[in-house]
Amino acid sequence: MKIIDIIDKHANISLSYEELLMLNAIFNEVCNGIDVFEFETRIGATKEEVSYLLRQIGNILDKMEKN
């Protein structure tokens, strides 16, 4: 991971294909593989929000694989 810049509460970062695969696996496990008691309290986001990030990462990986 390379940090490009941080402005207020936004970070611009660069992630490798392998790093995105790890994040994809982590988000997938959290959303679909394990039952997290009090999901929103423990994760700090709703399951829908995490699922959205999982889909976005999946879309990026698909585009990377096509190139």
Keywords:
67 residues; alpha+beta; two-stranded antiparallel sheet; 2 strands; 16% strand
Give a written overview of the molecule:
The structure is a single chain. The protein is α+β, with helices and mostly antiparallel strands and about 70 residues long. It has helices spanning about 15-35, 40-45, 45-65; strands at about 1-5, 10-15. Helix 1 runs antiparallel to helix 3 (about 45-65). The longest helix is centred in the last third of the chain and has 20 residues, at about 45-65. It is globular.
Could you outline the blueprint of secondary structure elements for this entry?
Elements: E1 2-7, E2 10-14, H1 17-33, H2 39-43, H3 47-66
Antiparallel strand pairs: 1-2
Helix pairs in contact: 1-3
Task: Provide a brief overview of the structure.
The protein has 67 residues and is an alpha+beta fold.
Radius of gyration using CA atoms only? 14 Å
Major sheet size, sense and barrel closure: 2 strands, antiparallel
Shape: globular
- Give the low-pLDDT segments: none
The N- and C-terminal alpha carbons lie at a distance of 20 Å
Count of extended strands: 2
Which bin fits the share of residues in helices?
55-70%
Mean pLDDT value: 95
Report the portion of residues in β strands. 15-25%
Q: What structural class should be given to the helix and strand makeup?
A: alpha+beta
Main β-sheet, spatial strand arrangement: 1-2
Q: If helices are DSSP runs of H or I spanning 4 or more residues, what is the number of helices?
A: 3
Query: What pattern of helices and strands is seen along the backbone?
Result: EEHHH
